[in-house]
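queue> pop job 88
queue> type: inverse folding (structure -> sequence)
queue> payload:
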């Protein structure tokens, strides 16, 4: 099989979908690996590293997409890449289609088979999303704590406090992978941490695993805790579906001026009425006196760590796709079939279809 690894073109996105070590392994299995020039340069892997691993360097995305049977990316295709996809080609990347109807329609029309990293898995485990959720969760506290500084427009609260001064309060919406990592970072800094969650079993686990208090999530409980909240972190996930809008504009007015809201769920549309996607170059805006950080590719800020963590998770699936093709890989790794979102010009993911009022047909 011919695999193509394009250079990411999303603003400030330096991650890459395959490391030279992965290219070496695939070429040992007699696959051709095409890497767009400078695809790994942003994280310290030059073209020579890929060539030594057996990969071939191509000069343009047009050349790469035209030749490759399987395209592995990190982020969703942007409009300039839509026409490059073709029928029968496999696209393996993060898609987050529930928040983007235009992309959904473009992928369906392309005839490509599209497998979404974030939907691969079952039994409440999403192994290809988890590494990025871990990074985003930990990063949310670093970013939020920084934005609370007065010189960034924050309230001037140090999350960990000091002797004689109460620490700041961090409220985390959702106790999944991103939420638990945010809570661990915040509690490690010495902040007061509350996690709002609806799954009672998950709350029992969180009670043992994190130095944080758990609260059953409801509109009334959120309204109750917001006035004393310095940093609010949205870490809600409904696999494949659009994020529920848990935070209304009226709720934000309850928070102190200069408080901070970090919406990790922005890839799936965000969990606040006031959320809108931002970029790493221009990440922050203010609504109702609350600083919003809604970067749609948060882990891209720590691109080297994120690439290593991502490729550790994705490579076994990529290798199976190359060795066995789509059907064989799905038989060997049934979790992969859950990620097939577009197939033969059909939308196959029910939650994505519901988000756009479209019809899903089973894969």
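queue> result:
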């Amino acid at each position: 099989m011919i695999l193509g690894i394009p250079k990411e073109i999303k603003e400030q996105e330096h991650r890459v979908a395959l490391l030279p070590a992965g290219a070496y392994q695939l070429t040992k299995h007699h696959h051709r690996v095409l890497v767009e020039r400078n695809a790994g340069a942003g994280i310290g892997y030059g073209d020579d590293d890929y060539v030594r691993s057996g990969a071939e360097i191509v000069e343009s995305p047009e050349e790469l997409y035209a030749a490759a049977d399987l395209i592995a990316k990190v982020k969703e295709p942007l409009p300039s890449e839509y026409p490059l996809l073709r029928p029968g080609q496999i696209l393996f990347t993060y898609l987050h289609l529930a928040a983007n109807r235009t992309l959904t329609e473009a992928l369906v029309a392309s005839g490509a088979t599209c497998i979404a990293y974030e939907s691969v898995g079952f039994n409440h485990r999403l192994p290809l999303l988890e590494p990025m959720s871990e990074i985003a969760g930990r990063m949310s506290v670093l970013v939020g704590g920084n934005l609370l500084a007065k010189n960034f427009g924050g309230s001037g609260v140090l999350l960990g406090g000091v002797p004689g001064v109460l620490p700041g309060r961090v409220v985390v919406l959702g106790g999944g992978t991103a939420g638990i990592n945010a809570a661990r970072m915040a509690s490690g800094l010495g902040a007061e941490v509350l996690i709002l969650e609806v799954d009672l079993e998950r709350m029992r686990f969180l009670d043992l695993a994190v130095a944080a208090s758990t609260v059953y999530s409801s509109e009334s409980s959120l309204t109750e805790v917001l006035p004393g909240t310095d940093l609010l972190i949205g870490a809600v996930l409904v696999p494949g579906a659009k994020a529920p809008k848990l935070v209304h504009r009226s709720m934000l007015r309850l928070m102190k001026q200069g408080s901070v809201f970090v919406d990790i769920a922005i890839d799936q549309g965000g969990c606040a009425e006031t959320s809108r996607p931002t970029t790493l170059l221009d990440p922050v805006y203010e609504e109702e006196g609350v600083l919003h950080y809604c970067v749609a590719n948060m882990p891209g800020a720590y691109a080297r760590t994120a690439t290593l963590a991502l490729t550790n998770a994705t490579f076994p699936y990529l290798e199976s796709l190359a060795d066995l093709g789509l059907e064989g890989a799905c038989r060997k790794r049934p979790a992969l079939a859950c990620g097939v979102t577009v197939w033969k010009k059909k939308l196959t993911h029910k939650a994505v279809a519901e988000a756009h009022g479209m019809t899903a047909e089973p894969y």
